[in-house]
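Dock magnesium ion; give full complex structure.
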Amino acid sequence: MTGIDRPIVLVGLMGSGKSTIGRRLANSLKLRFVDADEEIEKAADRTISEIFDEYGEKQFRDGERRVIARLIGKDPIVLATGGGAFVNDDTRALIKRDALSIWLDADLETLVERVSRKDTRPLLRNKSPRDVLTKLAAERNPLYAEADLRVTSANGPHMATVERILEALAQWQS
Ligand SMILES: Nc1ncnc2c1ncn2[C@@H]1O[C@H](COP(=O)(O)OP(=O)(O)OP(=O)(O)O)[C@@H](O)[C@H]1O
Ligand SMILES: O=C(O)C1=C[C@@H](O)[C@@H](O)[C@H](O)C1
Ligand SMILES: [Mg+2]
């Protein structure tokens, strides 16, 4: 596929697949892949958990906004955001203006199962992932719904989700 003239930005809840699907999507489109969470970790020389512990969530969100602003508006890339990025009004406005946004959506059971594989997410630490994700889905889904495209990130081969995204992109371009 050709003709993508702006960054493709993946948004959605923790575990929806922004990082893993994003990397494969970038490969398929021959675009550079960037993960905003990783960029924030590099810039701060700390893990996301350490940033939350040392500086708090508000500082993390400020850093996230700056990193995403720096990455958007350059070459077309595939950008995986952190789950909360599109919730920030400024970041969402920027993404909506300068990028093509895709909401990767998955049902609650799927998300709960996926996030249980790693315990690196500060918002889930010492909490019930099901309760946190239920609350976040209620708060955030109306905002994720403002993305240009919505694609279901169902379990199965990752490439099946990538294919669905490619189809959605082709339709959007036509
Ligand atoms: N569409 C999919 N099909 C199968 N497995 C998936 C799919 N999407 C994600 N996964 C798996 O779910 C887990 C979480 O995915 P990933 O880390 O990409 O989520 P994320 O949206 O980047 O989360 P976070 O917001 O916390 O960074 C990984 O183990 C990944 O392999
Ligand atoms: O959903 C969220 O608010 C978060 C998701 C992760 O990608 C990280 O950005 C961080 O753990 C916060
Ligand atoms: Mg991720």
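Observed: The pocket of adenosine-5'-triphosphate (ligand 1) is lined by residues 12, 14-21, 37, 80, 82-83, 114, 117, 121, 153, 155-156, 158, 161 (CB under 6 Å).
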